[in-house]
Amino acid sequence: MLKNKQRKLLIDMGLLDQQFSDSNIVITKAEDLMNWARLSSLWQLGFGLACCAIEMMATSASHYDFDRFGVIPRPSPRQSDIIIISGTVTLKMALRIKRLYEQMPDPKYIISMGSCSNCGGPYWEHGYHVLKGVDRVIPVDVFVPGCPPRPEALLEGLLKLQEKIRTETLRKKSV
Amino acid sequence: MKKPEEIFEILKNKFPDSDIQIDLETPTEPIISIPPKRVYEISLFLRDEDGLLFDSLMCLSGVDDANGEKIKDEDGSETIKGGTLSVYYHLYSVSLKHKITIRTETDRENPEVDSVEPVWKTADWHEREAYDMFGIIFLNHPNLQRILMPYDWDAGYPLRKDYKNPEFYKGMKVPY
To answer: CA neighbours within 13 Å on the CB side: how many for B30?
Structure first.
């Protein structure tokens, strides 16, 4: 049974299109419910690469509080829904990132945080060791620009990802 | 506490058969040049001799002097043939509070220098880095393998002046 407060929350989030006078029933689409559950509890792989990771940790800390969006760091890729690529991806690290990504269970999402992982950043020309964009090895959902991005920018990136998940469908996609 | 010139005189007297020189015209402190195959014994002497006692290797760096013959390739890039690679050692004595810069020069085509890892343990990773970036072989190093680049990197030594980045590494495109 849903409490009034919870029901109001669901209505505010656009999950319920109608309010019922009886307070013990909720009708919604399975898709909306699944998406809502997924986007509200994105467990993040505890993984940082460079200076962006410091901003990511600041976002997790009490001042910006990633947890209010359901993002908490997990120490294992097997328990994670999202990986934030926060820093310079070297060629050596790219292979490890690919493996970590493959170890995560579906559905899984990727935020590329900062110029380095977006496109190579300051290493784009002479960085003999840097992968020029992490999207060359794994499929990125949201790119967050900045060098490094402020916590607000990362939060914005997460909200964009949530928007994206909200419109997902359970129907099988044609390949 | 000794000046570089005094240390040079001590080395000159101790190793009369080695080609040891001092360059006083540098913008920084003077640099003492020693032969690459005498590095180990001279280092040991610098560390243990009373009045020198260089107990700390502050830094060990490789340098590509790029003083060989430059050959233009068809695609406009340059390959350097011949010339030298150098290794610089910055030493400091904690007890006597003096410091010195040592340099050794080695053949670019067959770069071999004595390892000073048995003298200063700091040199272990520094020499691995100089090997990784310049391809300088440190003789008698206990574990001379790449330290920063992938262990199986076979596209050459990135900080050499004529280095060319490969197009692909393990299926990943490398250039921008």
So the answer is: 14
Q: In the predicted model, is pLDDT for residue A158 greater than 70? A: yes
Distance from CA of B103 to the nearest CA of A (A): 27
Q: Determine contact, residues B33/B23, Cβ cutoff 8 Å.
A: yes
> Can you tell me the distance from the alpha carbon of B62 to that of B36, in angstroms, rounded to the nearest whole number?
13
Nearest CA in chain B to A129: B149
Measured between beta carbons, which residues in chain B are less than 8 angstroms from residue A116? none
Token duo for residue A75: 């120490």
pTM attached to this predicted model: 0.81
Dig out the tokens for B90 from the structure. Answer: 């910055």
Residues in chain B: 176
Burial class (CB in 10 A: 0-12, 13-18, 19+), A139: exposed
| Nearest residue in chain B measured CA to CA from A121 | B176
Global ipTM:
0.79
Residue A3, burial from CB neighbour count under 10 angstroms (0-12, 13-18, 19+): exposed
Residues on chain A bordering chain B, Cβ-to-Cβ distance under 8 angstroms: 91-92, 94-95, 119-120, 124-125, 128-129, 131-132, 136-137
Structure letter (DSSP) for residue A123: G
Selection from A81, A146, A131, A87 nearest residue A110 by Cα:
A81
Q: How many CB atoms lie within 10 A of CB A17?
A: 10
How does pLDDT run across A59-83, given as a tens digit for each residue? 999 999 999 999 999 999 999 999 9
Q: Is B156 on the interface with A (CB under 8 A)?
A: no
